[in-house]
Structure formats: structure tokens, C-alpha cells
Design goal:
heterodimer; A: alpha+beta; Ubiquitin-like (UB roll); Fumarate Reductase Iron-sulfur Protein, Chain B, domain 2; 2 domains; five-stranded mixed β-sheet; two-stranded antiparallel sheet; 7 strands; B: mainly alpha; 3 helical TM bundles of succinate and fumarate reductases; elongated; binds protoporphyrin IX containing FE; binds iron/sulfur cluster; binds FE2/S2 (inorganic) cluster
Amino acid sequence: MAERTFKIHRFNPEKDEKPYFQEYRFEVESGWSILDSLNHIKWNIDSSLNFRRSCRSGICGSCAMRVNGENALACETQVKNVKGSKIKIEPLPGLAVMRDLVVDMEPFFEGLKKVMPYFVTKDSPPDKEWLQSPEDRKKLDEPIKCILCACCTASCPSFWFDDKYVGPAALVKSYRFVFDSRDQAREERLDIVNDREGLWRCHTIFNCVEACPKDINCTQAIAELKKATVFSTV
Amino acid sequence: MFDYLRYKWRLGMLAHILHRLSGIVLMMYLVVHLWVTHYLSTGEANGETFEYLMKFFSIPLFRLAEVGLLGVVLYHALNGLRIILIDTGWGVKYQKTIFWTLCAIGGLAFLYGAYRFLFPLLG
Ligand code: HEM
Ligand code: SF4
Ligand code: SF4
Ligand code: FES
């Protein structure tokens, strides 16, 4: 048990002219995550606080927010691992704030929709399922861990300045299908990401890699796509 | 924009911002450089203006500025190589190690260069 101070971004567009910070100080029980602490505030201190969450176990991707300056999942971040006298909690940057810690995710999903985030097959389906060798399956280990939380895309300076950029999460999704031996739309996919609002907006800043709660190396995926694009067009 | 810059700074961000700043400095230098060297071809009294400018630039202040330029060139060139490596999928996981290794190489080259530039001044 230890007392901690939470400095939380507040904004209610119906009442407030500008966003402001509100502080809450209380005893944090051992083992509490940031999400447990937010729930404690909402249930016992101030029910007007708004944030998104669902699974509270790092699966749904709802609770992404900025904790002490860096994007993270509230439910996967242990309070005891967060340094500093105050824990500053803000909404994801680069997306419009709708209320308190809730942002408009639409630009994020727009980017995702652009990269055809679904299987495409052209041959007629086999009798049973589409088979894949264990080696080919292994290539997808990393990208299929993505929970679409937007920690990465909302940490990317290229996305902050241009939300038409599809962003690292969408590029990881594109990678997931381009390098899937069963998919049959490789050329179309590469065509989509070979765009100034696609691969070439990435300046290898690595904020996305630092932020991803699933340890996905987005920049590696982007590099592989860059290579695939270059070698499929020359 | 300044709101965004409050995002936690990690090595990749620092490397990127320095790369952009050094790129801009190099662009500005290139303009001056082209302006100065173009006097070589104007034939104006057999490159008199060029000779004059060369004298003007030989004062210690510009010697020092040259050392600064060397640093900027080294940073941009070496980090540029790091970016090319990353863009082609090499050593992406080791981007930080690569950065510091190149810093060490660049640092040594810088010290040697600075010595060569400034040695004549020490007389
Ligand atoms: C050794 C030679 C050089 C190498 C290896 C190199 C490498 C690079 C690379 C890889 C980039 C892309 C950065 C990114 O994606 O963010 C870049 C950007 C840039 N370079 Fe160079 N460069 C070199 C020389 C120069 C010179 C001589 C100039 C000046 C005339 C220059 C000016 C710039 C500028 C203005 C940018 C844009 C900065 C940005 O987008 O952040 N570079 N350079
Ligand atoms: S790549 Fe990582 S940070 Fe990005 S959406 Fe997927 S899980 Fe979240
Ligand atoms: S590596 Fe590329 S995609 Fe990731 S944060 Fe940097 S610019 Fe954005
Ligand atoms: S609440 Fe589902 S990922 Fe955090």
C-alpha cells in the first residue's frame, strides 16, 4: 500500500471551454494497474471521469492512453512500475479528444480499412481449409499479436502531423497479409502501401516500437514492406 | 505541436530531429557553397572575387565554423547510413547499438578532423 497522486486530463465538451488537469490522491493497493486506479476513482471518488476499457487483461485494446508521456495500455501498466511523484494520465495524442481520456478513433480505423485487413483468395477454395506450413505460419507470429489498441499509431510523429497517414498499426496489418502464404492479393496490397500516405511517411523514429504493449517491431515490418515494394516494382 | 513534443523522448526521436536539423543546416551550407564557388566560373577578373572570399573565410571564426560543419556532416552522413540500414530491414532491433557505435566512430573522426582544421591556427 502506498499513496500515489494521479494527475488526470479532464475535458467535457458540454461544460468546459478548455481541457484541464485534475489531481486525485489515494492509497493504491499492491498489484493495482493504472486501470484499477482509474476504476477506483470512477467507482469511489468521482463518477464523472470517463475512459474506455473492457477486458482489463490486455486483449481488447480499449484502454490505450498516455501514461507519464508515453502511450501504454492502462490495464497492463502496474502502478508500482510508474516512476515519479505524480502519475500523469492523458488521452492518446494525435486523435481528437471527445471526453476526458476518450479519443475519436476514426482516423485510426480509416487507416486500417485502407490496407484491406482481410483475407483475399482468388482460387476456388480447397475441400477442407487453406493449408499453411509451420514455417510459413511462424512468419506471422508477431503481427497476429496486434490488438489494434493504437498505442503505436498515436505515438508516431508522422501520424500526429498527418492523420491521413495509415500509421504503423495498419502497416503491421498489411504485413500480416502480404507475408501470409495463403493470401492472393500481394500486388494490390503492396500497391496500397506504396504511397506517400503509406510506407513512405515512416521516418524510422521508433516511437511505435517503444509504445507497443505486445512488443511488435512495427519498424521491422515497415522495412520488410518497403523492401517488398521496391523489389516488386523494379 | 509543442503539446506533441511533450511526448516521451526516446533515442529514435532524438536521432530523427537531429537528422532533420542537420539536413537543413547542410541545405543552407550548400546554397552558400554554390554561391561562393560560382565565382570561379564567372571569370570576373580571373576569379578575383573568389580569391577575395577565400581570404575572407580564412579567418579563425570560419575555421571554427568549419569544425562545426564537419560535425554536422558526420552526424548526417553516419545517421543517414543507419536510416538506410533500417529502411532495408538490417539491424532494426539493434538501432540503438548502431546509433551509439556510429556516434563513437563519428566522434573519433570529428576529433581527428578538428585537430587537422585547427592545428594551423595553433601555429
Ligand atoms: C553522406 C551523404 C548523405 C547521406 C548518407 C544522407 C542520408 C539521408 C537520409 C537517409 C535521409 C532520410 C531521412 C528520413 O527518412 O527521415 C536524409 C534526409 C535529408 N538530407 Fe541527407 N544525406 C546525405 C547528405 C546530405 C546533404 C549533402 C544534404 C544537404 C544538401 C542533405 C540534406 C538532407 C535533408 C534536408 C533531408 C531531409 C530531412 C528529413 O526529412 O528529416 N543530406 N539524408
Ligand atoms: S502494433 Fe502494438 S501498439 Fe500497434 S495497435 Fe497493434 S498491439 Fe497496439
Ligand atoms: S518508426 Fe515509422 S511508423 Fe513507427 S513511429 Fe516512427 S515514423 Fe511512425
Ligand atoms: S482493457 Fe482491454 S486492453 Fe486494457
